[in-house]
């Protein structure tokens, strides 16, 4: 079996590579990337291939449409059970390539990145059947300004160099990619310019800082609760001159960051507002 620590290190390294490229807003002409997704599966046989393709189809329908609610739509879940019907091609990458196999271990029980590319015409047609359409508009960069109060003090702002937030930065990049979005973690210089610090945090008394035209700033707090247990997230952003506030609780920070991105996607795509 694969050591848990080793597996986690390889997954984090993979997401770190994604983070290094997530520095620009998604452009309308880059729509091809929205028709593919990946899942981490065991081996390259049929044990987890149908499951992996199902997860990828659900993600792609969300990315292409800009409607996060489709992921758990009963109609989409039914379609996902036969995801192979929409597949144009797929391939595997051994996530532990270069690591010697132990004893009689083969590729059978090693983690693989299953990348699935779907037929754009079939995806667009499926969205039409669902009463949806592709989102071709520009996609803003998500810029989180988040105060994290974890199980152990001190509190900190999630920033480019905050040592406590290394894994959270990776998780945020991964969450954004699930929606066809990119994220830009602010620098310490930017935060200081906005008057933001762990001791002087603006949320919820003041609106988010002014964002650049291609960015959406989300200000919020992420608090650990032993009672739930889990994280409690409270967020605020401004879109088209209107303030929006929403939140989530009792989740891991991966889900909390997905909640942030999902809120921005709903607003930017015109599909609704977070609540």
Structural write-up:
This protein is an alpha+beta fold and 275 residues long. The protein has 2 domains: 28-129; 141-269, Rossmann fold, CATH 3.40.50. It has 7 helices and 8 strands; from the N terminus they run H-E-H-H-E-E-H-E-E-H-H-E-E-E-H. The strands form 2 sheets. The chain has a 5-stranded mixed β-sheet with strand order 5-4-6-7-8, covered by helices on one side. The protein has a 3-stranded antiparallel β-sheet with strand order 1-3-2. Strand 6 (215-225) and strand 7 form a beta hairpin. The longest helix is centred in the N-terminal third of the chain and has 18 residues, at 4-21. The protein starts with a helix and ends in a 6-residue tail after the last helix.
Features:
275 residues, alpha+beta, 32% helix, globular, 2 domains, 8 strands
Helix and strand layout, with pairings?
Blueprint: H1 4-21, E1 36-42, H2 49-65, H3 74-80, E2 87-94, E3 111-118, H4 120-129, E4 141-149, E5 156-157, H5 166-177, H6 188-193, E6 215-225, E7 230-239, E8 242-251, H7 253-269
Parallel strand pairs: 4-6
Antiparallel strand pairs: 1-3, 2-3, 4-5, 6-7, 7-8
């Amino acid at each position: 079996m694969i050591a848990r620590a080793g597996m986690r290190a390889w997954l984090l390294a993979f997401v770190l590579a994604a983070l290094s490229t997530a520095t620009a807003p998604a452009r309308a002409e880059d729509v091809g990337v929205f028709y593919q997704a990946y899942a981490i599966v065991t081996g390259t046989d049929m044990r987890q291939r149908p499951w992996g393709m199902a997860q990828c189809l659900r993600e792609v329908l969300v990315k292409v449409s800009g409607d996060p609610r489709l992921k758990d739509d009963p109609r989409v879940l039914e379609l996902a059970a036969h995801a192979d019907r929409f597949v144009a091609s797929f391939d595997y990458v051994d996530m532990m390539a270069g690591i010697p196999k132990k004893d009689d271990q083969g590729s059978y029980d090693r983690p693989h990145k299953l990348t699935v590319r779907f037929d754009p015409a079939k995806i667009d047609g499926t969205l039409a059947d669902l009463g949806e359409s592709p989102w071709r508009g520009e996609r803003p960069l998500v810029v989180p300004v988040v105060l994290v109060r974890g199980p152990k003090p001190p509190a900190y702002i999630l920033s480019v160099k905050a040592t406590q937030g290394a894994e959270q930065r990776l998780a945020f990049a991964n969450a954004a990619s699930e929606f066809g979005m990119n994220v830009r973690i602010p620098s310490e210089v930017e935060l200081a310019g906005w008057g933001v610090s762990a001791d002087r945090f603006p949320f919820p008394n003041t609106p988010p800082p002014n964002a650049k035209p291609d960015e959406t700033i989300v200000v919020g707090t992420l608090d650990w609760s032993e009672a739930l247990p889990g994280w409690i997230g409270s967020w605020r952003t401004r879109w088209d001159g209107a303030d929006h506030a929403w939140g989530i609780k009792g989740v891991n920070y991966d889900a909390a960051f997905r909640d942030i991105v999902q809120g921005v996607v709903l607003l930017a795509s015109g599909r609704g507002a977070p609540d």
